Amino acid sequence: METVILTEELDIMNERIYVDNAGTTMMAPSVIQAMTHAMEDTFGNASTTTFYGRQAKQVLEDSRHYLATTINAQFDDEIVFTSGGTESDNTVIKQVAAARQAEGKHIITTAIEHEAVLRPLADLEQQGFEVTYLPVDENGQINLNDLKAALRDDTILVSIMTVNNEVGSLLPIHEIGAMLADSNAWFHTDAVQAYGAVPIDVQADQIDFLSVSAHKINGPKMMGMLYRRRGRNLPSFVRGGDQELKRRAGTENVPGVVGLATAAKLHFDNFDADVALFQSLKHRLVKGLEAAGVDFEINGHLTDQMAPQTISIWFKGVPNDALLTNLDLDGVIAAAGSACTSGSLDPSHVLVAMFGEDSPRVWETLRFSFGITNTTGEIEHLVATIAKHVARLQHVGDRGQR
């Protein structure tokens, strides 16, 4: 009996369509295999000088070198391994503030950043720092003139994400880097939703700090990296031993690092094909919904100013919680917004910033985000499932209004 139940559960899982890759991704088989090998054969402490320590250190540094090449870092030691995007963001924000507060206490960000940026900035405001939150338009884009006007002599940090995690807007990172090149401010970008999906060049874009998380690219959770340009010296955020050249204490997670590097290689070796797949899936979804007569609008647009893998859709008159639940019960896994705040009853701060708190979009929007495990064959079923539930829920809403 137990075997039958297990088989049924596996069949159900295989029938599900997972389109919440911005929330997290399934670990790739090659990543699991590489990490398993590292756990079995590379158990040494990379900070020791014994045989097994040297062996672990070699694996660590080989991974660091490869990851540096993926963003065109000039030196391997500019890559610091962390527990993920949240730690990387917090490290930059809090440690830049600590290290440079004598030079100024002004920081610039946007109103649509991830909570891993917004919450440490709120902490700094309680400590006397001043934060300017740049507004965005209905496409989730900042106005560069607003950034230029906000820059001051006492601005010590500008933290602006590369790709927004809820609507997929691609921020003008290259132009921001050029604007900041002659300023006193250091430039940090949260690239968690961009890494592996859009080109990143820390030299060309004049980026000082960049955050990456492995579980967004089919790697392990609780593993990430922080790019820190040489000369941008910060005190260690995690205090303890002298690991990572005294930049991040704690015995290095060698299997996790191997997982991150393997996942990155999986994406960068297939970069163009993956991006083409994501774009194809997104356009098929939109055309399918149009053909099915679904009443919807895209939050943003379909141009190259949006990341290829993410689309945010307003289903008019349909509460997002009801639609999300019904899709889930029918085997479609999507999201109403950021996975980090999905349990909150508050509306999306990103959609509020784009459309205002009174807009129905903030309560009637779902996010669909594609990954390398998705196929074009899934889209027809995805469209049919969405159309079925949108039509029924809109009809219920119409009856309620009467």
Automatic annotation (TrEMBL):
Task: Work out whether the entry's keyword set contains Transferase.
Answer: yes
Q: Which Pfam families match?
A: Aminotran_5
- What domain of life is recorded for the organism? Bacteria
Q: Which UniProt keywords apply?
A: Iron, Iron-sulfur, Metal-binding, Pyridoxal phosphate, Transferase
Q: Which GO molecular-function terms appear in the entry?
A: cysteine desulfurase activity; iron-sulfur cluster binding; metal ion binding
Q: Which residues form the Aminotransferase class V domain?
A: 17-382
Which reaction is catalysed here? (sulfur carrier)-H + L-cysteine = (sulfur carrier)-SH + L-alanine
Cofactors: pyridoxal 5'-phosphate
Q: Which InterPro entries match?
A: Aminotrans_V_dom, Cysteine_dSase, PyrdxlP-dep_Trfase, PyrdxlP-dep_Trfase_major, PyrdxlP-dep_Trfase_small
Instruction: Provide the leader sequence positions.
Output: none
- What does the similarity note say? Belongs to the class-V pyridoxal-phosphate-dependent aminotransferase family. NifS/IscS subfamily.
Protein name per the record: Cysteine desulfurase
Its source organism is Limosilactobacillus equigenerosi DSM 18793 = JCM 14505
